Structures are given as structure tokens and as C-alpha cells.
TrEMBL record:
Residues 10-331 form the Orn/DAP/Arg decarboxylase 2 C-terminal domain. It is an enzyme of class 4 (lyase). One of its GO terms (molecular function) is lyase activity. Its cofactor is pyridoxal 5'-phosphate. Keywords: Decarboxylase, Lyase, Pyridoxal phosphate, Spermidine biosynthesis. This is Carboxynorspermidine decarboxylase. NCBIfam families: nspC. PANTHER family: CARBOXYNORSPERMIDINE_CARBOXYSPERMIDINE DECARBOXYLASE, DIAMINOPIMELATE DECARBOXYLASE. Its EC number is 4.1.1.96. The gene is nspC.
């Protein structure tokens, strides 16, 4: 079917746009020898894993279910990090993963020998305590009191025997200048132990496929650590893989006025695009402008009972009418993986737009998807 024929609400992932991102990432790998993994926490649409696997080295997971998904659906390198592993899950995680990264020396002491006995690579997450973000402490792994990674104060080099890699993750939607500053902090605090490692993982948060991103500096950073410490460098971006490669189609259900013009859509910020409320984040809306920029401004909200279920204020060239279809951009990442059925909201249909422009429904959800997760 064509794009305009899809039911709403509907997530649509564009194959051509996704592949455009993958080619950029593949170019970084080819020029530097680094390995790039899909961070599944941002994008787990495994229908697209065969395409992603053509370009990237594998997957990064946050626990058992993601580890299983990456193992089953991509079947390449599979790395796992969790702030703490469960005794009843660790053995299966080890069987599915190539690299298992620990968040503390206590977890390393508890499970590290099992990983080594299975012939898998043991990693340790460090915290370089180098905050490069502004205004998003909820997404800053280096914020005061962060539960992520071992600080230099808690570092125990006598326990590094058998550890083959170091992992850090400090960025969120940032350019490579933030990575360069972070690497300086990593070297200053942990540099004396890097030469005894086999690999280092720069984590995620690298907005590599964003227009204007400084790829040259990124590649300089990669080469710097490869050449100085003889390390295999990994990156595990999530957003960069599917950035601007997805859409959310929605329909105007009703309009009302309360000091401002309001339009109720058949999609929900709290259910279908949670980052709108968590970041907060204003998703791009095709054909719209900022509030007041065009002739007609509306506050767009969802149909749930949550007062704050508001997507934002957008302006249009002409008045919205009931039944109008509007399309949000950048809706592949942190949308499907975070959505929920609060208020009994139906989950959006998932579709793919192929290179010819044809759309194919991948999954359509129903009442049982809501009911069966509750009891």
C-alpha cells in the first residue's frame, strides 16, 4: 500500500533512510577499523536486523531479552552490559553473548570467572566523571551519584586479571568534541591500565549520522586510542542507526478551544512517544512551523486522561480539520521500544516503506496485546 493508505496511528520505518545512516556508519568502520554495534535499547525493530547486519558488527544489549533478540535475529557480535546481573539469568546471558561487561568489581568477582570459563570476553565499565551534557541530568551517566561505572576512587587494579576490555558511556545526542574531552578524562584517570586491555568501548550517544556531525574528529579519536594503546575500538550508538529514518502517522480526532486552539490526535505523547515528556523533546512535524510562525497554531495532545499528554504547539498554513492526517518525523528511535498501553491505548501499527516507496505492515496490535500483559 501507499504511505497515505496506512492506518493510524502507525510507525513507519523508511528502508532507504535507514540504509543511508548505515552507510555513514559503515564508512567510519572501513576507514578506521573500529567496530560499531546497534544499541538495541534505542531501536529493536528486528525486521530490519538483516539490513543492519549487512553494515554493522553486531548488537549491544542491556540484559537477557535484548541479548536473546540480538543473538537470534542478527547473529553477529553480541555485547551485554547491565548495572547488575541476576543469578538466574547470567548463565544464559553468557551463552548468548561474546562480551559481558560488569558495572562494578563486586559483580566482576561474582560472575567474572564464569564468563572466562565459557571463553567469553570480560569487560568493566568505568566512570570517568566527565560530564559534557547541559540540561539533561537524567541522561548523564557522569552526574553526581550516578550508578553507572567504577570511579577512580573505587578502582581496584589488583582485580583486573582476566579483564580484557574497558567500557564507558557518557554521551547523549552529542558531537565528537564531547567524546574527545571524555577521552582526555579517561586517559588521565585510567590510562595506566589501558595497555593491558584488548579492547575499549566508547559507548553510545554519538550522533554520527546527524547533519553537521564532525566525523573527522571522531575518526581521529578512534585512531588515537587504537595506535597509542593497541586496542580494538567499539562504538554502540542507538539513535545514530535510525536517526530521522522513521515517522509516526496520526489523525486529528477533534478540535476544541481553551484560551488556545487544541487538536486531539489518535496518538499519545505518554504512550507512543515518551521522550516528548521525559527529555523533554519536541518531535519534528512535517509541514508545520513553530507556534505563531504560520497562520494557525494548535496545541497537539493525545486522547488519554493525563493532563500532560501534550506533544507540543505547532503552526500550520491552514486550519486543521477532523480527519486530517499529520506526520511526525524522527519516530523510529526510543518510540517503539518505550511505548505502552496506559489508558488502554492501542499500540501503533508498525510498517516499513521499502526502496520503491511501497509500504508493508509488519505488525498490527490488538486488544490482547493490552490484556495479556496485565494478568
Amino acid at each position: 500500500m501507499r504511505f497515505e493508505e496506512l492506518p493510524t496511528p502507525c510507525y513507519v520505518v523508511d528502508e532507504s533512510l535507514l540504509e543511508k545512516n548505515l552507510k555513514i556508519l559503515s564508512g567510519v568502520m572501513e576507514r578506521t577499523g573500529c567496530r560499531i554495534l546497534l544499541a538495541q535499547k534505542a531501536f529493536s525493530m528486528y525486521k530490519m536486523y538483516p539490513l543492519i547486519g549487512k553494515y554493522l558488527s553486531g548488537t549491544a544489549s542491556s540484559g537477557l531479552y535484548e541479548a536473546k533478540l540480538g543473538y537470534e535475529e542478527m547473529g553477529k557480535e553480541n555485547h551485554c552490559f547491565s548495572p547488575a546481573y541476576r543469578e538466574d539469568e547470567i548463565d544464559e546471558i553468557i551463552s548468548l553473548s561474546d562480551h559481558i561487561i560488569f558495572n562494578s568489581f563486586s559483580q566482576l568477582e561474582m560472575f567474572g570467572e564464569r564468563v572466562r570459563a565459557a571463553g567469553k570476553s570480560v569487560g568493566l565499565r568505568i566512570n570517568p566523571e566527565c560530564s559534557t551534557q547541559e540540561g539533561h541530568e537524567i541522561y548523564d551517566p557522569c552526574a553526581r551519584g550516578s550508578r553507572f561505572g567504577v570511579t577512580i576512587e573505587q578502582f581496584r587494579p589488583e582485580l583486573l586479571e582476566g579483564v580484557s576490555g574497558i567500557h564507558f558511556h557518557t554521551l547523549c545526542e552529542q558531537d565528537s568534541d564531547a567524546l574527545a574531552r571524555t577521552l582526555d578524562a579517561v586517559e588521565e584517570k585510567f590510562g595506566k591500565w589501558l595497555s593491558q586491555m584488548e579492547w575499549i568501548n566508547f559507548g553510545g550517544g554519538h550522533h554520527i549520522t546527524r547533519e553537521g556531525y564532525n566525523i573527522e574528529l571522531l575518526e581521529d579519536c578512534i585512531r588515537r586510542f587504537q595506535e597509542k594503546y593497541d586496542l580494538q575500538v567499539y562504538l554502540e550508538p542507538g539513535e545514530a542507526i535510525a536517526l530521522n529514518a522513521g515517522f509516526l502517522i496520526t489523525t486529528v480526532l477533534d478540535k476544541l478551544e481553551n484560551d488556545i486552539e487544541i487538536a486531539i490526535l489518535d496518538t499519545s505523547a505518554s504512550c507512543h512517544m515518551p521522550d516528548v515528556l521525559e527529555m523533554p523533546y519536541r518531535p519534528p512535524l512535517i509541514g508545520s512551523g513553530e507556534a505563531g510562525e504560520k497562520a494557525y497554531t494548535y496545541r497537539l495532545g493525545g486522547p488519554t486522561c493525563l493532563t500532560g499528554d501534550v506533544i507540543g504547539e505547532y503552526s500550520f498554513d491552514k486550519p486543521l480539520e477532523n480527519g486530517d492526517r499529520i506526520v511526525f518525523g524522527d519516530m523510529a528511535i526510543y518510540s517503539m521500544v518505550k511505548n505502552n498501553t496506559f489508558n488502554g491505548m492501542a499500540l501503533p501499527t508498525i510498517a516499513v516503506r521499502d526502496k520503491s516507496g511501497d509500504c508493508h505492515i509488519v505488525h498490527k496490535f490488538n486488544y490482547l496485546d493490552f490484556k495479556e500483559r496485565l494478568s
